[in-house]
Amino acid sequence: MSENTIRVALVDDQPLLRTGFGLILDAEDDLDVVGEASDGAAAVQLVAREKPDVVLMDVRMPVMDGIEATRRIVGEFPDTRVIILTTFDLDEYAFNGLTAGASAFLLKDVDPEELVRAVRLVASGDAVVAPRVTKRLLETYVRPGGAAQAAATATAALPVVPPEVARGLAELTPREREILGAMAAGRSNQEIATEFFVSEATVKTHVRRVLAKLNLRDRVQAVVFAYEYGIVTPGGEG
Questions:
Q1: What is the CATH number of the domain that holds 202?
Q2: Residue 127's pLDDT band (cuts 50, 70, 90)
Q3: Which of 21, 28, 184, 225 has its CA 20 to 30 A from that of 141?
Q4: Same structural domain for residues 193 and 170?
Q5: Rg (CA), the chain
């Protein structure tokens, strides 16, 4: 196995789905399925043991669901990225998975080519789900005030920002904050470059700096972050 091989774990309570995805992924020279699990608790143990680069995670499973498993994996193993498997693109499970720390979501009937592409992109640190799709998903399920505050109160205008988040936001330059708002609004690098009259390379540099300062893994998480902390609100662009 090459050092560039992407290690993948499959988590689903349906053996046939795990088998099908495994056959697709193992057929690729640069992908290696290193383990399977049928529930969330076993998934956490599998990740601790095998340290995969990417986990394909079902949501509704016995013992521990995929949302809680995702939250634990992201918290304990930050180098492992999670892709949530869902049935519908505008699905509350997909929303919950993203806010738990997943880097992407895929439909369970995804084409083999798209599955392989998604695993490679997520392993490289890139986003699979277009920011516009993420934005639409968040607008559908986030109550006013941001996801972090949704369960606590329906009347608060903005969520309470933890000190470490406030510090990260304070480190952003005015332009970087504009870039974060544009990402959260679902704009591509090319669209941001046109809006601010800069090159795409400059936009990419700003995006990298924003992610680093806010300790975010990828562009999708930047969109979730912006909604959680009131930088943009459902129906608005901040």
A1: 3.40.50.2300
A2: low
A3: 21
A4: yes
A5: 18
CA distance 115 to 41: 24
DSSP 39: S
Q: Is residue 193 part of a domain?
A: yes
**Range of the structural domain that residue 200 is part of:** 135-228
* 124 and 218 within one domain: no
What average pLDDT does the chain have?
83
Q: Within a domain: residue 139?
A: yes
Mark whether 124 and 38 lie in a shared domain. Answer: yes
Q: How are strands ordered across the β-sheet holding 31-37?
A: 31-37, 6-11, 54-57, 81-86, 104-107
Q: Helix H segments across the chain?
A: 15-26, 40-50, 66-76, 92-100, 112-123, 131-141, 147-150, 163-171, 174-184, 189-196, 200-213, 219-228
Dump pLDDT digits (tens) for 198-213. 998 999 899 989 989 9
Separation of alpha carbons 201 and 198, rounded Å:
8
3-class DSSP state of 12: coil
Region 167-185: mean pLDDT is 88
From the CB of residue 198, how many other CB atoms can be counted at a distance below 10 Å?
A: 15
pLDDT tens digits for range 140-171 = 766 544 444 444 433 344 556 778 888 888 89
